[in-house]
Amino acid sequence: MAGNSFGQLFKLTTFGESHGKALGGIIDGCPAGIVLDLDKIQEELNRRKPGQSAIVTQRKEPDTVEIYSGIFEGKTTGTPIGFAIHNTNQKSKDYSHIKDSYRPSHADYVYDQKYGFRDYRGGGRSSARETASRVVAGAIAKQFLSEIKINAFVSQVGGMKLDKPYKELDFSKIESNAVRCPDTEMAQKMEDYIKSIKKEGDTIGGVITCVIQNVPIGLGEPVFDKLHARLGEAMLSINAVKGFEYGSGFAGVTMKGSEHNDAFNTDGTTKTNRSGGVQGGISNGMDIYFNVAFKPVATVLQSYETINKEGEKVTTQGKGRHDPCVVPRAVPIVEAMAALVLADYSLLARTNKI
Amino acid sequence: MAGNSFGQLFKLTTFGESHGKALGGIIDGCPAGIVLDLDKIQEELNRRKPGQSAIVTQRKEPDTVEIYSGIFEGKTTGTPIGFAIHNTNQKSKDYSHIKDSYRPSHADYVYDQKYGFRDYRGGGRSSARETASRVVAGAIAKQFLSEIKINAFVSQVGGMKLDKPYKELDFSKIESNAVRCPDTEMAQKMEDYIKSIKKEGDTIGGVITCVIQNVPIGLGEPVFDKLHARLGEAMLSINAVKGFEYGSGFAGVTMKGSEHNDAFNTDGTTKTNRSGGVQGGISNGMDIYFNVAFKPVATVLQSYETINKEGEKVTTQGKGRHDPCVVPRAVPIVEAMAALVLADYSLLARTNKI
Amino acid sequence: MAGNSFGQLFKLTTFGESHGKALGGIIDGCPAGIVLDLDKIQEELNRRKPGQSAIVTQRKEPDTVEIYSGIFEGKTTGTPIGFAIHNTNQKSKDYSHIKDSYRPSHADYVYDQKYGFRDYRGGGRSSARETASRVVAGAIAKQFLSEIKINAFVSQVGGMKLDKPYKELDFSKIESNAVRCPDTEMAQKMEDYIKSIKKEGDTIGGVITCVIQNVPIGLGEPVFDKLHARLGEAMLSINAVKGFEYGSGFAGVTMKGSEHNDAFNTDGTTKTNRSGGVQGGISNGMDIYFNVAFKPVATVLQSYETINKEGEKVTTQGKGRHDPCVVPRAVPIVEAMAALVLADYSLLARTNKI
Amino acid sequence: MAGNSFGQLFKLTTFGESHGKALGGIIDGCPAGIVLDLDKIQEELNRRKPGQSAIVTQRKEPDTVEIYSGIFEGKTTGTPIGFAIHNTNQKSKDYSHIKDSYRPSHADYVYDQKYGFRDYRGGGRSSARETASRVVAGAIAKQFLSEIKINAFVSQVGGMKLDKPYKELDFSKIESNAVRCPDTEMAQKMEDYIKSIKKEGDTIGGVITCVIQNVPIGLGEPVFDKLHARLGEAMLSINAVKGFEYGSGFAGVTMKGSEHNDAFNTDGTTKTNRSGGVQGGISNGMDIYFNVAFKPVATVLQSYETINKEGEKVTTQGKGRHDPCVVPRAVPIVEAMAALVLADYSLLARTNKI
């Protein structure tokens, strides 16, 4: 209810502030019998962690996950998987300048209004550091969903947009560059652009595209819990996300029905896939694909005017170690959230029929 | 879990197929003491109902709601509000042609795959007729939220896009035309366009914009249940929706942080509102606004090729009474879903502090 | 959340006041493909309905259920089953004497305190009439659980207690008498006793025992959602219930571990069954059995002193048509709630393993 | 869903096996602004921990709780409270004898059947060690509910039963003896009896009575989530519990309505309190009291026959450090679960009215 759980049957609950002792979570409902490769969990965390390249924040957080329960002799036991990532490199002093003032387009002001006060260090609970827990859970969900392939990648940074259809891309190239764009030429341009933005002390937005392949038919519930509705909620719950579209998305608006409809092949697949792999809220076996829009990071390393708790104007200077563009590090988070949705609906689909 | 409930504290559960005896729902958690104007509920239903203008389906469904419980002496009692809308004009024979074949870009095929069989009459549970129950519940939620103003309107039909910022629009004009676009000149063009599409036996997509004003600060939960994530899920759960964006949305991607950030006024309001009234998942008191993209209706009144249950090719002819463009009738549905989200989060916000 | 839903995967939500237009509910999550015998649903309702014998209330409520959705061509479709029972014989005037005063040991006072006012007619939502909806849902759950046998019966009325172990009883006799006690001799004594209590204008409590046979191993979750914990909650949610015990129950308290432990046979069954078919919250394949204690009905047809809304003493006279002893009509309710729990956990158990 | 969460608004989720690295939990929904005394949390844990007296298990577990999040500058922040208790003294070798065989009246067999295998060390997830996490959460709930007084105590051990009404007891004596019985004379007898049972290598059951005072009127929901139904579920979810009764309980069965009804005083209180502080599922402001029955601990330090995984008979010898009687250490667990229920319903009650 208070919003720190995601999923119903395969359920993640997370805890932790940016600069607290630890963050972590509990995965409840993970089926018994999954042979878990713990290294793969850490690998996913490493894709998200700071300091991995020149275009991301230079904070040094090892982000080592410790698993406390739910695994025995290498397999999940069906009991909850508790885990924690201990904070080791938190420089809380970096944030003393925001203790009493509100950073624009951050959650500082609303937290104070909602709760009466806030843990201001590093943004507290509103920090995207919380997503590390999602990546852990997503990495486990991926191993449960071993047949399903989930690939997210950066398809836009600022005005630079990858226009190729995803079918023409080589997903094996995603991890070959710092931006996580599978088109290496475009990746280079994006990287250069992010560096120039960083030099200005500014930030820039971007889009992540996610493609999910090999999804069984029948995942998703018909009315409120449509598969794409839950995917949308999952993506919109990631820090800095402003929009979600799947299949034909906003562009589908300008099409006529006769153009937009996906004609069937005799095996139940469709000739086109404007539906984006979901029909009436239920997976139809075609690829699921969607776009997620991220705004530019709010923390700019520039001087700006804002207000303090007393409502007085103050001038302050952005500092700390921040990402000039959030999308490269958000790629594993998008994949993790997609995996959590699919794991949850995979279990739920077991209950549809007698 | 099976997806027919929405909300946690103010919770709607719906039932009903397009051509069954009745559809309806239960609202659980509606606070006691709301003086309910029942006529306003029926008025909202009338905004959604078929046959209201020349550009919508000409089916005749009176859509009269009967309330069974939860109201006593004109006020809500705090107990569940059960209601039903009896079906009266269902022409099931219209659908016998789809009993054994699968309409493209409809849910026919996935229902059969998921459940083993389906109630094919009128699309059964996958029909947008289900949304009538949402409109009833939304109309009650609106009366609970009497301070908050929710206005949705059509901002795009096919390529025709209303480019004025919402602040320049007169919301009192929304109901003045069949399209529900507050710019009467644009409304006329849209209406003409929809008529021409209808004449072709075709359909067209559109966008609904929703503006929510007078929202108290502090609604929304910080992590998975961010206010905009729930709004997004709510909208994506409406039939035919393909995308959702709030505040700067997809356009925000191309902005720099220094341009995108909303500077504070000394009273805590902001000079700009690219955040769209939500910061870190929590309402900040500014207007909430978002766009919802609808694909073209899948039923075209043309001849088309598809497959039957046996996987054989069949040629069929779209018939029945359908909407050439879904957005005019979807406006009250968008408002209803927004109201349900806000009612739910308003109650939840009562529990944040000691 | 507001307490009108039961179950997670197989979920019942109910609505309706004693004297409103109708009561009913929605069953969400019922799997597709169950061939439903609708007559059996009505039969269960008839076991609960007033006027069925001389020892129950003489109100005349036909309690005919109308099913609105979720069933097509005789089978469940996997979509929600909406249903209603219309009220036809409500004599609201019978209750005008309680409009302004509070009946002792009824919910009148707490409803006014909690909600600010109440629908006082027939007890409104606090009336056991709500349980008719549970019986409908339970009857459907029973058909889903066709392998499992659920038999409840009256084992005590006042001080008259059936001391035979349930294995010595013939469950086919339960419906052979008005009390629903499978020992016909004891049944006659209980019936005579209830009649004498009724003559006094008084009421008496009782115990229902429920035996569930043929339960698969593995239903129930290990920690908070232990199978017996949910059964206990289910039973305690029935009007007038004051206690629940399963297996050895309160009597097990005085036993030593060496006496109480159930030794295994080589096939995994146990020689004794003090555990009551549940071990560590999970069914072990042995019979589940439990007792449910019901207090005497609070409405006595005698003169009594109480207070009115202003806190003044008033003398009033119990009237209306009430049960002298609630247990005979509560037998199908106990069975229904047991069936709902088992249906829910049966679905959940499908998700335990890869 | 998988049963490791309790509560809806004030929600505890736990993780951890008896012999894993750590156990712990997350409290989600705890309101912001509670000034927390961390020592009191540890004190509650100490009441539960092994080795505290001669009549409990002599295992040495410091059970020191580490809080990771959700508290800042001494106050709850409204964000989730994550915590862990690291295991330090686990002697897994003690359990190698049960790796391949099933202890009678333990969960070994059903875990293997349900999940395919189990973490057998110390009972794994089925160990009552899990309840340490409940005590942490309950200790925080108690501080939130600072006005409400919750006192549990041992009222029966084997056949030794404290027959005094709770009003004649001095709750300040509960902690004065190892049994946690407020009647010191009876406490001595119980203690002696437990010692004699222990000497036999046997175990014995008991009853805990819990009294909750100063409860505001209006907590509890009318139908499925009656306050006493949730209390019952909470208690039945504690290891070894076989029964629950509140107010007049099973004894109320033999009373007539005219005797059982609680007559009102003019201030809305009642002259008697057979209702046990709950009417129609809603607190009425009177004391809530209930009894919880615990079976004898299944582990007896005697030789016994059982079966192994292959279904072969084996003779084994109970060993390890176990409690001869569980109730003294279960007192803080009962209080904790009661506190969790009340905290949850206190928050929920904020949403009943406009």
Distance between the termini of chain A: 31 Å
Chain-averaged pLDDT of chain A: 95
Question: What oligomeric assembly is this protein in?
Answer: homotetramer
Domain unit count of chain A:
1
Tell me the total number of β-strands of chain A.
17
Please list the strands of the largest sheet of chain A in the order they lie side by side: 1-2-3-7-4
Poorly predicted residue ranges of chain A: none
Helix residue percentage of chain A: 10-25%
CATH superfamily of chain A: Chorismate synthase AroC
- Computed over alpha carbons, the radius of gyration of chain A is 21 Å
Can you summarize the main beta sheet of chain A?
Answer: 5 strands, antiparallel
Structure description:
In chain A, a hairpin with a 2-residue loop joins strand 13 and strand 14 (282-283). In chain A, helix 1 crosses helix 3 (131-144) and helix 1 crosses helix 7 (327-348). Chain A starts with a strand and ends in a 6-residue tail after the last helix. Chain A has helices spanning 38-48, 108-115, 131-144, 184-199, 227-236, 257-260, 327-348, and strands spanning 5-6, 11-15, 22-28, 65-67, 71-72, 75-76, 81-86, 101-102, 149-157, 160-161, 206-213, 241-246, 278-279, 282-283, 288-294, 303-308, 313-317. The first copy, chain A, is globular, with a radius of gyration of 21 Å. Chain A is an alpha+beta fold and 354 residues long. Chain A has seven helices and 17 strands. Chain A has a single domain, classed as Chorismate synthase, AroC fold (4-Layer Sandwich). Chain A has a five-stranded antiparallel beta sheet, with helices on one face. A five-stranded antiparallel beta sheet of chain A has the order 10-9-11-15-12. A three-stranded antiparallel beta sheet of chain A has the order 8-16-17, with no helix packed on it. Chains A and B meet through strand 1, helix 2, helix 5, strand 12 and helix 6 of A and strand 1, helix 2, helix 5, strand 12 and helix 6 of B. Strand 12 of chain C pairs antiparallel with strand 12 of chain D. Chains A, B, C, D: Homotetramer. Chains A, B, C, D: It is an enzyme of class 4 (lyase).
